[in-house]
Amino acid sequence: MYSQIIRFVAVENKAGFCYACPIFTYGGRGTLKPGCRPAEHAIIYYTTLQSPTLLPGENELRYEPIGVLPPAAERQPLNVACRIRFGKLYPIEWNVKVKDLGRVADEDMGRLIHYYKSELDKPR
Q1: Is 2 part of any domain?
Q2: Which of 3, 24, 52, 96 has the most CB within a 10 Å radius?
Q3: Structure pTM?
């Protein structure tokens, strides 16, 4: 059996659940992973612990980085390869146990929602 922990950013509340965009490192490769669609991604980072950074060889992403204010006790930055994928949504039930990873910075909240909605509106 295979399992992994996936981080998410909640982007829309619904009755009894929310939609969330996943955060992946793609095995530390960021959007360099074969088959990855860089145009659906943005860098996600802790604003007080690090700066947004592209990996060597990674091209500029369509979406600007999204900053997150970490919980007060957090001392470790997010993996430099963390990318939020706006092109894939997960429904998360409200009764699922979660760990607080912080709050999207106020100055980035509008862009976060705009990016989510722009991917949602794209024909597949």
Answers
A1: no
A2: 24
A3: 0.92
